[in-house]
Amino acid sequence: MASPAPSPADDLVTIRDLVRYGVSRFNAARLTYGHGTATAVDEAAFMVLESLSLPVDELAPWLEARLTFAERGKIIDLFEQRIATRKPAPYLLGKAYIQGIPFRVDERVIIPRSYLGELLLGGTLGQDGLGLIPDPFAITSALDLCTGSGCLAILAAMCFPEAAVDAVDLSSDALDVAKLNVADHHMEERVRLEHGDLFEPLAGRRYDLIIANPPYVAAAEVAAFPPEYQSEPVLAHHGGPDGLDTVRRILAQAGTYLNANGGLLCEIGTGRDLIEQEFPNVPFLWIDTEASDGEVFWLNARDLGLQA
Asked: What's the pTM?
């Protein structure tokens, strides 16, 4: 009887071995990143650590850890799925992180990676930053438009302890995932999920803060997506011919749903020049993040009255 074919798991013993192997396989396969990682090294490290239930932001302490044969086989199988399917790693592992906070994900929702997570949690909006929200306890009502997995609504509830947060999405499938995340983070009493098109289910409500990460990718760019991005719901990306159809609708309606001292925080990708040309009288405040330059704006309720 012939001996079984050798497996890479026979020789790859430590986490360092597995990460190195993953990087080599991913580079050879020319994968695309951008769903929480930017390089083959980061992708392989995330997949190894998450699959082993280890902290995903701490690779160094575990590099020389020796794995069981079963653990090694599981990780190698995940690497091969990543290459064969071209699905983003968070879909294969069912988990994504924003600023170290975990959220469930699957193909029903876009993978969380909004720049707004950094702005909410990093202090940029507060008294020691831009001073846009000097007192987090003064926010008693917030709205998250295009909530997807519910991650930003949950982060808003964490950041603003007195706020009741409404979270709206057009996709009932996405809201099913958001419901799981709300339960995971014990936010059932703070976050209310609403099904509908932007402000449609919110008649008569007003908020101290509206946050929005709407679809903002132009149609031609969506059509040219690599397989990793094609795995995500088209609805979560497609923003019309120039990518800004939904952004325009938010600008047109948000003022009606804000309290007098409220504000809108909105992520729009690379459409700054187009928006500024279309609304020359609106004093957009553009906010940079660690990974973005001029892709997020702030407007207060008064300024939203100038968009016409």
From this structure: 0.94
CB count in 10 Å sphere of residue 41: 16
Residue 1 has pLDDT above 80, yes or no: no
Nearest to 144 by CA among 167, 163, 162, 121: 167
Residue 98 lies in a domain: no
CATH code assigned at 76: 1.10.8
Residues 6+ apart with CB under 8 A from 25: 79, 80, 83
Does residue 2 fall inside a structural domain?
no
Triad 32, 85, 16: Cα angle to 5°: 65
Q: Which amino acid is at 269?
A: G
Length of the chain measured in residues: 308
| Cβ-based neighbour number of residue 306 at 10 Å | 13
Coil vs helix vs strand at 119: helix
Query: Which residues, listed in sequence order, are joined to residue 93 by a DSSP beta bridge?
Result: none
Cα distance between residue 238 and residue 126, in whole Å: 32
Task: Render pLDDT for 139-193 as a digit per residue (tens, 0 to 9).
Answer: 999 999 999 999 999 999 999 999 999 999 999 999 999 999 999 999 999 999 9
pLDDT of 18 > 70? The answer is yes
